[in-house]
From TrEMBL:
Keywords: DNA-binding, Metal-binding, Nucleus, Repeat, Transcription, Transcription regulation, Zinc, Zinc-finger. It holds the Pfam family BTB. This is GZF1 protein. One of its GO terms (molecular function) is DNA-binding transcription factor activity, RNA polymerase II-specific. The keyword Nucleus applies. Residues 173-182 have a biased composition (Low complexity). Its main location: nucleus. SMART domains: BTB. It comes from the Eukaryota. Residues 145-188 are annotated as: Disordered.
Length: 188
């Protein structure tokens, strides 16, 4: 009697793998590459894992697949014109699939994602920029609508429409020509 195959799939394994790789990187364990970044005289070095960088960045994949064999335990990659904070955020994203940055840095994160050919980060930045733009447009629309309603309500109380003013000239005597019934309608 033949057994039916079943699928064993872990929903938590990818997250656990990322978390463990992040911990290894933060502790400097099993890191086989050092990425040096420099921007306007500010320089920093980041230990990382070639496999993680190559899996998340086509730029790094090309670098590592085309590099000459290294005689030491670790190879080095130098990136100039990359801000230290931006590369640190990039690393956090590729190791955790999330990173928190200020709104004004989203464009820079998109630029580093494009420079390093990191599709996941590019898509994430584009989605966030679209949400931010939609939010601003919604705020502008709400502001415009509130301005229009304020203008309309400000124009109503003291004005009489021109057509009514032409039909019913004001009565200076204070008495209504139609009598008490017309007065009751006006009050209502």
């Amino acid at each position: 009697m033949e057994s039916t195959p079943v699928l064993l799939e872990s929903k938590s394994s990818p997250i656990n793998l990322l978390n463990e790789m992040q911990q290894l990187r933060l502790l400097g364990h099993l890191c086989d590459v050092t990425v040096s970044v420099e921007y306007q005289g500010v320089r920093a070095e980041f230990p990382a894992h070639k496999a993680v960088l190559a899996a998340t960045s086509k730029f790094f994949k090309e670098v590592f697949l085309n590099e000459e064999p290294v005689d030491g335990p670790r190879s080095n990659v130098f990136l100039n014109e990359v801000r230290v904070a931006d590369f640190a955020s990039f690393l956090e994203f590729v190791y955790t699939a999330r990173v928190e940055v200020e709104e004004d840095r989203v464009q820079r994160m998109l630029e580093i994602a494009e420079k390093l050919k990191c599709l996941d980060l590019s898509e994430t930045c584009f989605q966030l920029k679209r949400q931010m733009l939609e939010s601003v447009l919604l705020e502008l629309q709400n502001f415009s609508e509130s301005q229009n309603s304020e203008e309309e309500s400000a124009a109503r109380p003291g004005t009489v429409p021109a057509a009514k003013a032409e039909r019913d000239p004001p009565d200076c005597s204070g008495a209504s020509p139609e009598g008490p019934a017309a007065k009751a309608k006006e009050k209502a």
